[in-house]
Recover the amino acids of this structure.
């Protein structure tokens, strides 16, 4: 699932180059990728190469050269290289972390992208490649996995890494570098690669983004190589507006392919240059909320936990403003989120009680009450570990008043109130997910941008809470609940005002 990080295993390092590793992002042929943060809180992706590569002197030499070149790349559609060490026992490279899915993940999860998005993608990746080529680097392995989708456009990553890999003893024995389904004819033949090689891969990307399949189909390596060398690409489903330039990108001979400037000019004519976040379909844009919440949660986990206070005496509960119709039965959202007297200490204890009860085979009224209390105090972050994003315009034409949005949120919580609490944490997680969707709908189209933003963040928070319930992670649940108390206070005040 996008935006969720895998925990470190006992075999993973805990620190690389002075950076404390927080989670595992992925693994590939070159090594493993981890999430870390700079001293100032910037999210980083740190790639640690495999031990067998580290022991290869020729690999180290090329890796050192590629790092020096990559650090000069400053294109806005590339992931900036922040730090690196080719001389470490195990070489590593740190780049700016891009909080978004890869093109491969987006297409796999949400299907082919619409024509205007494909045009914007083609123009953006071409611009990113132009910045890479300006520093005398050829990517060599431009695939859907090496293009990330950010709110303001695509990002090209891992440029130069394949060149270093080409120096390993394995490839020197005859293996080519590249992903078979996205390789160029010259790579298949084992000939020298140039900037035109990346242009061929760029055509591949456009076809994949528009259709969900490679331009030369799928199959075993030999079959793919034969089609790349001998057959025309299948451009069925490729947008008509950019099909001619994509066909030229996929020309067999490097000299017949267009320059990146030509690709940018042609694709740019058909790219709908919208505000940040609006270049992608809604289904993909929604994924960014998960990345925000996951980053925030991991980042906050680096801080020393707040000491728990002893729970207040039971009589303190009588001071809460609970409406006659039940905790969630008031006419305004402030009555729903009666958290003014619920501090982090109560949230922590409630979370502990919930997870203890979720593991039991029976359900009691006390457990149900605890679960409801926990539900009303799980919220998403006000602060973000990533850079601020430009506010996007909503596509909703029918605006809701502030009171309508708050009332819709009240109904969402009422629905949860009427849900039977289960001892099965997966069923409870499903209830949280439904609440998350309902809150997102409550905020959609709200005329008050602040309320809309708060409800959106609250929706993301309950989605993350559902993840924690499903994965049985009480510690993460408690930390999130305790740290986000102020956000709910702000929402309460907004709906009261």
């Amino acid at each position: 699932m996008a935006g969720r990080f895998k925990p470190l295993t006992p075999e993973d390092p805990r620190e690389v180059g002075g950076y404390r590793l927080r989670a595992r992002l992925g693994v590939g042929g070159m090594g493993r990728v981890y999430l870390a943060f700079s001293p100032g809180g910037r999210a980083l992706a740190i790639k640690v190469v495999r031990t067998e590569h580290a022991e290869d002197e020729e690999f180290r030499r090329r890796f050192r050269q590629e790092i020096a070149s990559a650090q000069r790349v400053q294109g806005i559609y590339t992931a900036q290289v922040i730090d690196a060490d080719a001389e470490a026992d195990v070489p590593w490279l740190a780049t700016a972390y891009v909080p978004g899915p890869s093109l491969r993940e987006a297409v796999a999860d949400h299907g082919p992208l619409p024509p205007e998005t494909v045009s914007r993608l083609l123009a953006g990746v071409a611009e990113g490649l132009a910045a890479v080529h300006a520093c005398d680097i050829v990517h060599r392995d431009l695939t859907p996995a090496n293009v990330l989708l950010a709110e303001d456009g695509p990002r090209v990553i891992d440029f130069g890494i394949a060149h270093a890999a080409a120096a390993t003893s394995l490839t020197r024995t005859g293996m080519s570098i590249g992903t078979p389904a996205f390789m160029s004819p010259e790579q298949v033949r084992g000939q020298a690669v140039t900037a035109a090689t990346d242009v061929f891969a760029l055509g591949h990307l456009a076809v994949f983004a528009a259709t969900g399949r490679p331009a030369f189909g799928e199959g075993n390596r030999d079959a793919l190589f034969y089609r790349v060398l001998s057959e025309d690409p299948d451009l069925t489903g490729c947008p008509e507006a950019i099909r001619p330039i994509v066909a030229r990108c996929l020309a067999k001979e490097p000299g017949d392919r267009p320059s990146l400037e030509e690709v940018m000019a042609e694709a740019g004519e058909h790219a709908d240059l919208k505000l940040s976040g609006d270049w992608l379909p809604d289904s993909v844009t929604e994924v960014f909320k998960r990345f925000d919440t996951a980053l925030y949660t991991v980042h906050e986990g680096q801080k020393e936990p707040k000491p728990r206070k002893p729970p207040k005496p039971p009589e303190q509960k009588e001071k809460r403003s609970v409406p006659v119709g039940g905790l969630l039965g008031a006419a305004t959202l402030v009555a729903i989120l009666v958290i003014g007297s619920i501090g982090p200490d109560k949230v922590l204890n409630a979370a502990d009680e919930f997870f203890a009860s979720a593991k039991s085979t029976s359900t009691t009224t006390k457990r149900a009450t605890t679960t409801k209390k926990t539900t009303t105090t799980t919220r998403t972050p006000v602060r973000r570990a990533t850079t601020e994003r430009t506010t996007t315009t909503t596509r909703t034409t029918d605006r809701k008043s502030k009171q309508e949005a708050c009332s819709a949120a009240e109904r969402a919580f009422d629905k949860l109130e009427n849900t039977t609490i289960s001892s099965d944490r997966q069923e409870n997680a499903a209830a949280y997910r439904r609440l998350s969707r309902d809150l997102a709908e409550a905020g959609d189209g709200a005329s008050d941008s602040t309320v809309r933003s708060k409800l959106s963040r609250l929706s993301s928070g309950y989605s993350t809470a559902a993840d924690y319930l499903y994965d049985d992670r009480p510690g993460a649940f408690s930390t999130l609940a305790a740290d986000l108390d102020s956000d709910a206070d702000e929402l309460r005040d907004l709906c009261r005002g």
Observations:
- The first strand starts at residue 15 and ends at 16.
- The mean pLDDT is 75.
- The longest helix spans residues 449-471.
- The CA atoms of residues 52 and 344 lie 48 Å apart.
